[in-house]
Amino acid sequence: MDHGERSTVLIVEDDNEIRELLRLYLIKSGFHAVGASDGISALREFETVQPDLVLLDIQLPGASGLIVCEQIRSVSNVPILFVSARGEAEDIIRGLQLGADDYIPKPFDPAVVVARVKANMRRAPIYRRYDPASAVVGCSPEPAIPAEGIHIDSKKMTVHADGREIKLSAKEFQLLLFLASRANEVFSASELYEHVWGRDSNDDPRTVMVHIYNMRKKLEQNPADPRYIVSVRGMGYRYEGTPYR
What we know:
Layout: E1 8-12, H1 16-28, E2 32-36, H2 39-49, E3 53-57, H3 65-73, E4 80-85, H4 89-97, E5 102-106, H5 110-123, E6 150-153, E7 158-161, E8 164-166, H6 170-180, E9 186-187, H7 189-196, H8 206-219, E10 229-232, E11 236-239
Helix pairs in contact: 1-5, 2-3, 6-8, 7-8
């Protein structure tokens, strides 16, 4: 099924011309596109329309894109793509640390933005909080969550580490799932980027490194001495948890 037939994109951009240009390109591709011109209205629109993906500028009046990203991440794992000027490298890294999935540098080709939106939706199914009330009466009991190790439930899109439920962004979940399904294999940052983000994204291994750093803080008891996602000097990263099948 074409994602564009049923997906909503929230465009948060204070430049009216850029916002309208992106909106028209997305609508032309079949998306429902909603715009917001500042951080406060962005959060209000997010609650109202519950978008499937957010395009988020960093420099915004009212509340910066970094604040908006942090607020959204506290309640949702919806994919967030920053749209930013090339000179905002520190802000981009900060945004990734707050849970953004990727970024698109300005100036950009609107057609490329649409392609990146489609790619992120294709690779990042949105997972929401599990509602026990929605469980079907009479179904088999839930499997026990192990007290040690990492437990991944791909149907509910949940992760537990040492018995604790962990909130991961869409890209963090994809990255963990990829590594866990290939336990004990070593992948460079560039290889992980190509597998998880795809060839149509920015070729920037820093994105992977920031996501690994964030995941370790969430998953590991001691992020400085990780047990699950370990570094292999000069080569990349390896997952040493229980293999995911």
